[in-house]
Design a protein that fits this description.
There is one protein chain. The chain has 2 helices and 10 strands, in the order E-E-E-H-E-E-E-E-E-E-H-E. It has about 120 residues and is mostly beta strands. The chain has one domain: Sandwich (Jelly Rolls), CATH 2.60.120. The strands form 3 sheets. It has a 5-stranded mixed β-sheet with strand order 3-4-9-6-7. Strands 2-1-10 form a 3-stranded antiparallel β-sheet, with no helix packed on it. The protein has a two-stranded antiparallel sheet with strand order 5-8. Strand 3, helix 1 and strand 4 form a beta-alpha-beta unit. It is globular and about 40 Å long. The N and C termini lie close together (about 5 Å). The relative contact order is 0.28.
Length: about 120
Amino acid sequence: MSIVNGRTLKLVAATSKQAKAKGLSDRKEIPYDGMIFFFKQSRRLVFWMKDMHFPIDILWVANSKVIDISENAQPEPNVSDYNLKTYNSSEKTDTVIELNSGKAKQLNMKNGSIIKLQ
């Protein structure tokens, strides 16, 4: 569970290396409110929409603070892996949250918004 701008969200954690690599790929819908990825070391991260079936918002988080938001990342069916668009954190990050497209705006997420993890 996470508290985002005063609202509690139920997030599925991708904890293993395999789960992080797969993320939301091949799912028909987002589970619960989204997925959260934790990284032991803060670093610049790159995500892509490989085998995705729905658009998402990506929250890039460092030290429990949103540092960037990639809104409305679109699936790219029939595009080779080498040609898929990538989404990058603008700074070093230690946590990434993926939500349904439009959810970041609905939650009034902005750079600097605090994420409380429970």
